[in-house]
Design goal:
CATH architecture: Up-down Bundle
Shape: elongated
CATH superfamily: Ferritin, core subunit, four-helix bundle
Number of helices: 5
Number of domains: 1
Structural class: mainly alpha
Radius of gyration: 15 Å
């Protein structure tokens, strides 16, 4: 597997991890059943994509980078801080849209910086982008 393929997969894998972790932080604050169901479904999709990436990389005898501890700590801190300020559905939806947009931008950027990606790698990255964009559309209902 080429270095550029691993770079893209690392970006998407870490995007999935960050989304999963953010949702874990948010779930205890959600009381609305429909909202929780929407977010649980999104987290399930992210977990499935993360596993798909892991298996693909494993099949090619490669390894993914460990996620950066400081990124995880910042995510947890920022999420908790934002929830302390405002626990409303509207605010949570806004936070998730912003996070989803960051994932889409970083993934699109790394895709645009690489040429001749493996078709499967490109499909996995595009799948992540679609998941985030679809979730963002759903979250607009809660703004």
């Amino acid at each position: 597997m080429r270095t550029q393929d691993i770079k893209v997969l690392n970006e998407v894998y870490q995007g999935c991890e960050m989304g999963i972790e953010a949702l874990d932080q948010i779930f205890p604050k959600i009381e609305d059943g429909k909202f929780l169901k929407e977010l649980s479904g999104h987290q399930k999709d992210l977990k499935e994509l993360k596993e798909e990436i892991y298996e693909y990389v494993k099949e090619h005898n490669e390894e993914l980078e460990e996620s950066h501890l400081w990124k995880e700590m910042m995510l947890k801190g920022m999420t908790k801080w934002n929830l302390l300020m405002d626990e409303t559905k509207s605010h949570i939806a806004e936070m998730l849209i912003q996070g989803g947009n960051m994932g889409v931008i970083s993934t699109r950027k790394v895709l645009n910086e690489t040429d001749n990606l493996d078709d499967e790698v490109e499909k996995l990255a595009e799948k992540f982008i679609r998941l985030e964009e679809n979730n963002n559309e759903k979250m607009k209902e809660y703004l």
